[in-house]
Amino acid sequence: MDPLINFRKRYFFATLFIALLTLISLPQVTFSQDFSGIDFASVNVDNLSDAQIRQIWDRAQDENLSVQEIGALAQTRGMPPAEVSKLRTRLNEVRFQTDTDAGDSQQTSLRQVEDSQNGQDQMEIRSDVEQATDSLRIFGADLFRRGTRTFEPSFNIPTPVDYTLGAGDEIVINIWGAAEANYNLTVSPEGVIRINNLGPIFVDGLTMIDARDRILNRLRDIYSGLRPNQPGEGNTFAEVSLGNVRSIKVTVLGEVDEPGSYTITSLSSVFNALYAAGGPTRSGTYREIQVIRGQEIIARLDIYDFLVYGDQSDNIRLRDQDIIKIDPYKNRVRLDGEVKRPGLFEMKEGETLGNLIEFAAGFTERAYTNRLVLRRSTELQRSISDVRWPEGSGLVLQGGDDLRVGEILDRFENRVAIRGAVYREGEYELDEDMTLTDLIDKAEGLREDAYLPRGIIYRTRDNLVVETIPFSVENVRDGVADDLLLKRDDIVQISSLFDLQEEQTLRVSGAVNQGGEFPYVENLTLKDAIYLADGFRNSAAPYRIEVARRLTGADRFQKGDMLAERFEFDVDSTLQFSKDGEEFLLQPFDQIFVRSLPNYRPQQTVQVEGEVQFPGSYVLENRTARISDLIEWSGGLSRFAYPQGASLSRTEIDEVGTDVAEQLQEETEIEVTDSGSNKVGIKLIEILQNPGSPADLKLLPGDVLNIPVRLETVRVEGAVLYPVNVQYRAGMSLRDFVDNAGGYADNARKKRSYVVYANGEVDRSKKFLFFRNDPPIEPGATIIIPAKDDEPELSPQERIAIYSTIVSMRPL
């Protein structure tokens, strides 16, 4: 058999086997168009992803099933009660998240309306509709709305001592010592467990402690060495514990998000059932949730006890057929503003403002507690009251009260500030009868650079208009002028001498090592400035140092049309300044120029590339070197050279080379820009035959001479159907090469065709009368066919408009 066919068969069967293993390892939930395809008995809820839970919820929405109905369906199909409880919990998370997303837009718009009200609007009374759609959350609602699984009952805890056994509970008995045995017994519907060689043991309704004693006493009939009450005397030992717990059914009704019957574990508490049912609705009570067992109310749960104090004493464990009843709330008040937990709070009869602030976790740091605004409904209308804290903490609140805690003013009652030429700028406490000198003393006094003739106090009047109060810093300091009494929010400004003058600098440029701008200091000499610039370069002409000084003050008028004053200095061969130069004091904004030696030039190079004996870089020996000299320096052309295609690339920088431009830029500090490298058309054969002729160009620094190998192709570009390189054959015309590129494109400008030769020269097609003369083609040339500019076509509507205009212009 062909090895390739054998390999393909093995690869196919291996792929099929891996696919089958993948299907087997997938989660047991296989979603179909309804719930008939889900094997609930084998589902592990913890292994389901959020996307799968959402998919179950979407299917339930399509079939109008509630969360408890999905749980009941899953339990009838074999899902364990513990898994049913987990499934309901996760479905509630998805449902609450969906409700939250749907209500975000409405909540956002309500916040925008409330935030846009000004101070006057906040004093207006809210209508009943606004209260019904208040954006504030009900305190405690987040306990059931945040999508967490905080109240999922734990199954990995020791058996509670007060746990009451019932039908469906599993009891595990381990015996070791002189005899060994293990029993996993389930309490029957009759309330008994059965052990071989023993009669039935009734345990229904017993706590685990009582059931343990009863079971151990009965086990003594078949294990003689068992001494449960005297373990030190026996040789057989036993342990009784709780295995799997039973399921119970409880009913949650009233003002609850999802009322109905729920199947939960016997370890579940009231909070577990409330969480499964989604918690109270917006109109449900959080303060008095009733737990009814039989015909008796056995507990009243106050969720606030848990939220505020962490007290779960009323969070009792539920039993089968218990009823949790949530009535509508009785009294609810609104607390907003600068408290840590703003919201809607439910108040019991007799609870006070102090209780409300405690529920809200107290005030924030910016709360204004001298006036809490209380709005209250009376029998006929609304009223408003001012309440002081803590004096009003005993105020008894009633349903419908609306309390707002304002914010303290964003201003200081005893602040002054000083800035400028003092040692410690900033804000300071305004003491009683504090004066300007007191504030300066607090700021550690004036700096040496303080401008003493004048200072300014910025003062805010009672009408919030800011005024300035000038003073003499020197006179106030020396006691010549009266000291000024400061007021709240005064800002004292004492400027520095340096703040009141232009920044003083000087510049050193030219043939120095580190030229540039330097800060001016007093008594700075010319020699100091040269040292600041790190001394001379090798190219420096120290006998030609110039200082240019701007004209200021009266000098500008005395010296007429002069723009600046210039000084010249020299230095001897040992780089020692003359007496005048060493003692010459500089002034602000002086510019020092160190000129370069007249004949000093750095080495300037040119390059030759391609088919010469010794390609590379060569230094120009003089300013009259030509292309023929460069060919001679490089050993002449090689036997593969194509002189007709030789070209010269020149970097155009105002007719000077790169090195010269750099030197010019260093001396003058004027930026010299590179305008790019361009080919210069040359005729190398003519140059070599007539050295020194006008065709033999003089070289400039940076020139690159390229001697290519013989070229065999011609490039066709532009408005042709297929730009391509075409093999050169003698006698072919421009049209022949274009035909080899597929011919002219529709937008080709044939009359504008031109040829770029390998040496950089350009020639174009010419026309005389009815005859067109195309340039000759040489190897290595590039034929370029320009394209016409794109002109947008007229739309049908534009054509109709033009035709209508023409018709309307015709004479009647």
Mean pLDDT: 80
Biggest sheet, spatial arrangement of strands: 7-6-10-8-9
Number of DSSP E strands: 37
The major β-sheet equals: 5 strands, mixed
Rg to the nearest angstrom? Answer: 50 Å
Structural class: alpha+beta
Quickly count the helices.
21
Give the percentage of residues in beta strands: 15-25%
N-to-C terminal Cα separation, in Å? 95 Å
Assign a percent range to the helix content. 10-25%
Large-scale geometry: extended
- Spans of 5+ residues with little confidence (pLDDT < 50)? 16-33, 103-133, 654-676
Briefly, what is this?
This protein has 812 residues and is α+β, with helices and mostly antiparallel strands.
Task: Characterise the protein shown here.
With 812 residues, the chain is an alpha+beta fold. 25% of the residues lie in helices and 24% in strands. Helix 2 packs across helix 4 (81-115) and helix 3 runs antiparallel to helix 4 (81-115).
